[in-house]
Specification:
Layout: H1 3-9, H2 15-23, E1 27-29, E2 32-33, E3 47-49, E4 52-53, E5 62-67, E6 96-97, E7 106-112, H3 115-122, E8 130-137, H4 142-150, E9 153-154, E10 157-158, E11 163-169, E12 175-182, H5 189-196, E13 201-209, E14 212-213, E15 222-224, H6 227-235
Parallel strand pairs: 7-13
Antiparallel strand pairs: 1-2, 1-3, 3-4, 5-7, 5-15, 6-7, 8-12, 8-13, 9-10, 11-12, 13-14
Helix pairs in contact: 1-2
């Protein structure tokens, strides 16, 4: 088995992230610093990450968390801010979030110890859809909506076509509420897309991911995904 797959199966991180960890020299196999492309034998070789031995996960878990605003998507934070890991600290398995929501965003966040699943959900190749409800300052015009829909030129490239719908002025007036569905994972993508057409994002909430929704969860609550829901996620891949 490839080392990065072994690590992903052990819940270290997604396979791509594991490749980075290996490249950084943080992994050893039987006491020797590992290199990309290595293979390991399950139940035979001793694999350590940062000096701690890892083992393939005995059960695969996927959790759906309603991430509150003001919480960071890291395992620890040097500034002492609350992290998503604090909400699942009673779970014995080591779980990693699938992608991120920035500190000022809220909504649906998946966490898992299934590295293969995480890799496919995050990789742009598979085109997993993510839907957000947003509020931006000012009026979002028809031409700006068309630009968001057809693709926005950002510093790291042109975004793929998106779906923008349920556009309406906010009750307070002067600002615009709308929903947007994307299937890429660029950093802070929705905020940057909105900024590129001349607006500032005031609120951003992820409401759906790969066919799953928040349902009745309240901010800070989480639940395990059922086998049927995990199958829904798997079926959301675009081959």
């Amino acid at each position: 088995m490839r080392l990065q797959k072994y690590m992903a199966d052990a819940g270290v991180a997604s396979r791509r992230a594991c490749e980075t960890i290996i490249s950084e020299g943080r992994v050893t196999v039987n006491g020797v610093t590992a290199t990309l492309g290595m293979s390991v034998k399950v139940d035979h070789d001793i694999v350590e990450v940062d000096g701690k031995q890892i083992f393939p996960a005995k059960r695969k878990l996927v959790i759906l968390l309603y991430k509150p605003r003001g919480v960071v998507c890291t395992s620890s934070d040097p500034e002492g801010r609350k992290t998503v890991q604090e909400y699942i600290k009673d779970i014995p398995e080591r779980l990693y979030n699938v992608g991120r929501l920035d500190i000022n965003s809220e909504g649906l966040l998946l966490l898992t110890n299934d590295g293969e699943l995480a890799n496919k959900l995050m990789h742009p190749r598979y085109g997993v859809k993510k839907t957000y409800r947003a509020i931006c300052d000012g009026k979002l015009t028809a031409s700006e909506i068309a630009t968001l829909t057809n693709g926005v030129q950002l510093e790291d490239g042109l975004t793929a076509p998106a779906r923008v719908f349920d556009v309406a002025p906010t009750k307070e007036g002067g600002n615009t509420a709308f929903s947007i569905t994307i299937h890429e994972g660029k950093n802070r993508q929705v905020r940057r897309m909105v900024e590129a057409v001349g607006h500032r994002t005031l609120r951003l909430k992820r409401i759906a991911y790969g066919g799953l929704t928040l349902g009745g969860l309240k901010s800070g609550q989480w639940r395990y995904l059922s086998k049927d829901e995990i199958e829904t996620l798997t079926n959301s891949y675009e081959n």
